[in-house]
């Protein structure tokens, strides 16, 4: 019911969008993929313009500052989609991304710092690519910098002028919105027609610098901006100046990809005016509609339910996020995979779900690898009902993943299906004794899950090795496998022997004669210190698992039927150990605080129970009442007003309960009480007897 207003609003917006013509299906590579298309306001079937080739243009960053988590959300998100289209659906994706290195923000920042705008832009561009590499975002096939395409931009603008959709004014060139709208074959504001009369939003896209000369219409926007003295400029038929913001993408994308483009992508905040203006410019240049067939947008990144912005001081750079030793680049990617709408809490807590999912996958692949190392195909392979059940479940989950990805790249659902595969395989292994596990079936499930995590860009390791960390970690794991297995086996047998010794010692302590108990366990107790010896051995085994091996980047886990181990980042293991220690410390503090509060409550109850019934109210309520009767019940309140009968009845009922508590205390303490107890109780509760307390006993 709560989604009804949103659905109604979306439907109303769709009804205002102009017609969209789907590409022809004839001779095209069609996979059943549907994607949310901003040009239609709904999911539409994806049909490439030519065969299986996908021409994709993505809006890149304006490089004047550090890349932040909003950039991560956009570029990791589109990287996931690009990988799915290429590596899962089998399209040949040609990706072009621009770098805006000529822009008012860059010029203004360089002027403030007294440096060259080119050096500033190159510095932050290098930082951007470094961040993208850290996040495992694939580099585009083509990078287009505005500064390297100024001639092409000038030529593109000239074509628009020639087609009568732009005009020159005092050295600047403006797009003629009215002429474009009245052409009869073009529509302005294809994705946000309801925003085209919002002059504030139109002006936001114009920037702060450059001359704003006479425009025919306040909604016309700059294609070429005449430069002020001291600003960077390039020659053009209209004089020295620089490209407007919107024109660069149209010119560079068309230069590389031509007309039409299959996919254009960017952040939702760019939809209007930037992307709508791009569409208008390109249609004006080629003088035909639908320059882009599918327009994809990512949503905002919210920080604690607020849009991320510098003004709100909730701005987090990618490097700041990755500085935390517990946060790995793939955690950010997993967060994008499991959330269709991103609301992020900075720090480890905001990544907790992603970290937990990452740990589950890492343990799962290590788990399967261990069984593959220790299990032989010489064992019986005939399927039983449990294998058929697992096989059916795996096939269903594989289909679930496919259907989810066909449905607008629904990675949250796909990730749930992959986690179900892990859960079902773990259940099968745990319920099947070693030597009876059908490894080919388990391997099929694990291989599919690993392939999908590789498609999503989470892992870089080799599929055959199922090595989750990949790279050097995979080589390290192979090299140390015999050593760790030998050490783990030695520890396992030592641990089992110590447990037998401890069991024998405990049996002897519980009344079984030591020789009989020891004989039953296969050990002898000659010096009476067997129990301490066994505990010491077990402590050493735990120390090896919890302290020594993590320092070497080895994660060892005991299981009822043996052990499993993984080669993991040493830093990750140590950081995880620190986190667990902090959680244990927090739990210990909470437990101690709860015990302290419980002790306080008990002490308070005991202090109250000491007080004789007739002195209770005069001891604890002396500030509320001024006179008491022989039973100890208040007769007058603090202002001297009589206490009502109903109130006295309630207090009388309470005194009956208190009398029982007092009598129980007398029994447990062996007597005592009276005035001394009342004074002590009042002191313990922070009260002092009122002036009427002593007189009230005789009233």
Q: Secondary-structure blueprint of this entry?
A:
Blueprint: H1 4-15, E1 34-37, E2 42-45, E3 53-58, H2 69-88, E4 92-99, H3 104-113, H4 117-134, E5 142-145, H5 150-162, E6 166-169, E7 172-175, H6 177-181, H7 199-204, E8 222-226, E9 241-243, H8 245-257, E10 261-267, H9 271-286, E11 292-298, E12 301-303, E13 306-307, H10 318-323, H11 329-338, E14 342-344, H12 348-374, H13 385-406, H14 411-430, H15 439-455, H16 472-509, H17 514-521, H18 530-551, E15 554-559, E16 562-567, H19 570-610, H20 616-620, E17 625-628, E18 634-637, H21 645-669, H22 675-684, H23 693-696
Parallel strand pairs: 3-4, 3-10, 4-5, 10-11, 12-14
Antiparallel strand pairs: 1-2, 6-7, 7-8, 8-9, 12-13, 15-16, 17-18
Biased composition (Basic and acidic residues): 577-595, 638-649
Keywords: Aminoacyl-tRNA synthetase, ATP-binding, Ligase, Metal-binding, Nucleotide-binding, Protein biosynthesis, Zinc
Organism: Vitrella brassicaformis (strain CCMP3155)
Structural commentary:
With 699 residues, the protein is of the alpha/beta class. It has four domains: 7-323, Rossmann fold; 329-454, Isoleucyl-tRNA Synthetase, Domain 1 (Orthogonal Bundle); 472-568, no CATH class; 598-696, no CATH class. Helix content is 53%, strand content 12%. The chain is built from 23 helices and 18 strands. The protein is extended.
